[in-house]
Q: What sequence folds into this?
């Protein structure tokens, strides 16, 4: 039986990055909806794993981005109990869309968090088999100005100095990550080029050179992402 991953991409410069490398190495059939090209949303029968990517817009920007309403309707249908076979992962904007669909609030964070900053696991995160050997603290890549409250019944997984809710797990089939493990140097360069207006002075905003990061930061993120995805799909 083929394993099938479908991803939703919101802007050209925020691709799934090394998630596609993982999918290829695990023999997944990969399809996509690129909303900026008006590609259609799929049937829930067409995939087993759904990945929602990031983007510079807010979940509240439906007037500016009409596809947001359609995506929210699509996501709520997938979250229905009749689709429990599907695993879902959201990254940054994707995580915020999941949080909202599960009844939580999405709102401006106290600080923008842009660059490489550590996250720490909660006690529940440390105890869960998905994260059992994760370093804590652990430097990951961030690019966000909004955050979310935790949905009811969600397990709080990680936090940072700048942002309390960095990750949650819901019923062992829905994973929301505010941070990015999938980025490559090219993806980060694209963010710097296309979202330069976000790089304003702040306690958790690095300068462009620091934002670009070092090879070892990417290597560790990719290693942990592959482990996380393998474990997540076995839950």
A:
């Amino acid at each position: 039986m083929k394993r099938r991953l479908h991803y939703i991409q919101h802007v050209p410069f925020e691709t799934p990055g090394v998630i596609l490398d993982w999918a290829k190495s695990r023999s997944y059939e990969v399809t996509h909806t690129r909303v900026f090209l008006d590609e259609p949303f799929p049937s829930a029968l067409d995939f087993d794993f759904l990945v929602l990517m990031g983007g510079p817009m807010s979940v509240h920007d439906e007037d500016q981005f009409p596809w947001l309403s359609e995506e929210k309707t699509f996501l709520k249908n997938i979250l229905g109990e009749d689709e429990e076979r599907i695993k879902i992962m959201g990254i940054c904007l994707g995580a915020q869309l999941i949080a909202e669909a599960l009844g939580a609030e999405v709102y401006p964070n106290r600080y923008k968090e842009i660059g490489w900053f550590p996250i720490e696991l909660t006690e529940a995160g440390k105890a869960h088999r998905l994260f059992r050997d994760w370093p804590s603290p652990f430097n990951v890549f961030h690019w966000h100005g909004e955050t979310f409250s935790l949905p009811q019944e969600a397990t709080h997984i990680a936090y940072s100095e700048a942002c309390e809710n960095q990750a949650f797990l819901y019923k062992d089939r829905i994973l929301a990550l505010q941070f990015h493990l999938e980025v490559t140097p090219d993806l980060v360069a694209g963010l710097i080029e296309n979202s330069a207006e976000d790089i304003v002075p702040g306690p958790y905003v690095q300068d462009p050179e620091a934002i670009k990061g070092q090879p070892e930061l990417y290597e560790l993120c990719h290693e942990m992402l592959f482990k996380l995805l393998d474990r997540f799909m076995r839950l």
Q: What stands out?
A: The mean pLDDT is 96. The longest helix spans residues 215-234. DSSP finds seven helices and nine strands in the chain.
